[in-house]
Write a structure and sequence with these properties.
Rossmann fold; two-stranded antiparallel ribbon; 2 domains
């Protein structure tokens, strides 16, 4: 590759803004309704390619006195380009979400980290699934892509300087091409591999996205030099390429890796072949299309804010869409015209590094202000009401509980293993039993993960009226049966629970007694079946058969709680699910419907029904309690809130509603 002309910078191409308009439109359609354009989120990947292309072109032939001058100039332009519109959006949206979300910490922290280009890392740390419905309630989820770009900008200026590209060195262009090419190959391999093993990392991390921005860089470098391959690409009708891109935007999510690669390649081809005189060029350079491209940064910011706040309030309906689109455009145009454009073109200071300081200082000040909304006691802008619940939140799972009629108490913390540091902790029958264990007509031993301790109040009648004793134990994150490998952060305490806690408790049972397994069974009813989930279901079946055989040899019976609705996927706290004045058309907490949930549960159901038919266990199915209507919600038929937290742990009210069903099974002959 030959050096580039020294004074010639890459000229403005309006069709690039046209492609930006196309990309942001695809993203917005997908965010309105995933079913309309399943892979519309790939518009972000189109943005990445464009960003790599444009940032490289902006540095081509740009004179700099030295590395310091180059670096300060680069970051001054980036700060002026990104910070003003972002700060305005984050500040206004943060205040608004506080009116409707009683616990806005996750959104506010995402917004704060976005001001410093770190929201992608924050979201990754929170183990966020970008494609889950619950992400729609975080008003700043979409800023992850800004984090990827900004982290790329920390690396890119060093590459272009030290390869000699920005110093106009003889082989600078060639050096940058090969270095970026090598990084792109490594990044692409990491992306493909990570998508299979750790999808959030593949999605959110800059190193696994670098190949997309790098593709834009490589494209610019390649277009400066004519060869037969590029000449062939330039002759491809751009309308065909555009059609292919549109086609991939309709591809199912399960083909995300292939679709992402295809979109990146096709975007590069489109930039190459989009030429004057073609229908596609006329379309992409139409003044209105170009204008959407020009405001695309502000539009990308505000569209998600409008949609997310709408989900917190009126929702998204066919009749609301025109108003929501109009609001997006109004806010974006105002942001572009009065903030983004004038501040980008103005001189913030005669000294460039001070401009960087002003930008970062504004971000820091905004961050501190927003942090105060989460840290100052009793400071709340929330305008809604709180639900009436006996117990709220995960900490309530270890609250002590007593039955005065039988003079017994469940001691809470003494009966629970909550982390690996509690390996070796002794759990005694005396501390963890409601009723008289020694003289009970029958004994029930409850074992399971954190769900088991949520059911303490479900056994009142069994203890008081039927003279049973109920011993409740729990190990956070425990496997349903010992045969299922536990690879979580709670693996050690899980092994200790099954190997050292459960066996001696079972040893104290007598013929006719029960072991009752209470767990969150959602892992056995995934949205999409894989070989791993099928294997897990087989391990469950094998483990239940083994446990049943051991128990039946001693005359002890086994019961298991069937899978409940998938409330955890909504990631909603009870207060969010409670009907409020600001969401008159329903809560923003969206659960799968009854029919969809039962369909997902079918494979698990077949296993449990088969084992019950073989008299190896009894099923306790509370699905009708937790989903009494066709649309599952957070509310029971009588209006009571069914869950105590966003992790779908049942509320005290719900387990008392379920107690007759539990009692009927456990008192059956």
């Amino acid at each position: 590759m030959q050096p580039m002309p020294q004074a010639k910078q890459y000229s403005y191409r309006p069709e690039i803004d046209g492609i930006r308009a196309f990309a942001v439109t695809a993203v917005i359609i997908n965010h309105f309704n995933k079913d309309l354009l399943p892979s519309g989120y790939l518009g972000v990947d189109i943005f990445f390619v464009i960003s790599g292309f444009v940032i490289t072109s902006s540095l081509a032939g740009r004179p700099s006195k030295n590395f310091h001058d180059f670096l300060v100039g680069f970051y001054t332009r980036r700060v002026k380009r990104l910070i003003p519109a972002l700060v305005l959006f984050v500040l206004i949206t943060s205040i608004l979400i506080c009116f409707f979300n009683p616990a806005p910490t996750a959104s506010l922290r995402t917004g704060i980290t976005s001001l410093f280009g770190l929201s992608n890392l924050y979201l990754l740390r929170q183990s966020i699934d970008y494609f889950a419905d619950s992400t729609e309630l975080n008003v700043f989820t979409h800023t992850w892509s800004l984090g990827v770009e900004e982290q790329f900008y920390f690396l890119f200026p060093f590459l272009v300087w030290f390869t000699g590209f920005s110093r106009l060195a003889t082989k600078g262009s060639r050096n940058l091409f090969w270095v970026m090419g090598a990084l792109c190959v490594a990044s692409l391999i990491a992306f493909v591999y990570s998508y299979k093993t750790n999808q959030p990392a593949a999605y959110f991390l800059m190193p696994t996205r670098l190949w997309e921005l790098g593709t834009g860089c490589l494209l610019f470098l390649s277009l400066k030099h004519s060869n037969r391959f590029l000449h062939t690409l330039k002759t491809i009708p751009p309308l065909i390429v555009t059609g292919a891109i549109v086609g991939f935007l309709f591809v199912s999510l399960q083909f995300a890796v292939n679709a992402t690669i295809a979109i990146v390649v096709l975007t590069a081809v489109l930039i190459t072949c989009l030429r004057s005189g073609t229908t596609a060029y006329n379309l992409f350079t139409h003044p209105r299309v170009v204008y959407i491209g020009l405001i695309s940064y502000s539009l990308y910011l505000w569209h998600w804010g409008v949609l997310s706040l709408s989900r917190w309030t009126i929702g998204i309906h066919w009749w609301s869409v025109p108003f929501q689109i109009a609001l997006m455009l109004l806010l974006s145009i105002a942001s572009y015209r009065y903030v983004e454009k004038p501040l980008r073109r103005s001189d913030w200071s005669a000294v460039r590094w001070k401009s960087i300081g002003y930008g970062m200082g504004t971000s820091a000040t905004t961050g501190v202000l927003l942090l105060s909304l989460t840290k100052i006691p009793n400071l709340s802008l929330y305008t809604g009401r709180y639900p009436s619940l006996i117990a709220v939140g995960v900490p309530s799972l270890t609250d002590t509980y007593s039955l005065e009629q039988v003079n017994s108490m469940w001691e809470g913390e003494k009966c629970v293993l909550s982390d690996n540091s509690q390996v070796g902790k002794k759990i005694s029958v005396e501390d963890c039993t409601l009723g008289n264990f020694s003289n009970a007509k029958k004994r029930i031993l409850v074992i399971g993960n954190s769900f088991s301790s949520a059911f303490i109040q479900a056994f009142d009648d069994l203890v008081v009226s039927d003279e049973y004793s109920v011993t409740i134990t729990s190990s956070w994150g425990a496997s349903v049966v010992n045969e299922i490998p536990n690879n979580s952060a709670l693996d050690k305490v899980n092994n200790y629970y099954w190997d050292s806690v459960v066996p001696p408790l079972i040893d104290r049972l007598s013929p006719g007694d029960w072991v009752f397994l209470i767990n969150d069974m959602a892992e056995f009813s995934p949205k999409h079946r894989t070989s791993e989930t099928d294997e897990s279901l087989k391990q469950l079946e094998s483990g239940l058969e083994t446990l049943s055989s051991k128990l039946s040899a001693r005359g002890i019976r086994l019961a298991i709680l069937h899978g409940n609705p998938f409330a955890r996927e909504a990631n909603c706290q009870p207060v969010v699910a409670t009907k409020q004045w600001f969401h008159p058309f329903g809560s923003p907490c969206r659960l799968p419907s009854r029919s969809e949930s039962l369909l997902r549960r079918n494979n698990l159901n077949e296993v449990l029904v088969r084992l019950e038919a073989e008299e190896k266990l009894r099923i306790i199915d509370l699905f009708n309690v937790f989903c009494p209507e066709e649309q599952c919600t957070y509310n029971a038929k009588n209006g009571q809130v069914l869950y105590r937290d966003e992790y779908s742990h049942p509320s005290v009210e719900s387990v008392r509603l379920a107690s007759p069903i539990i009692r009927k099974v456990l008192t059956s002959p």
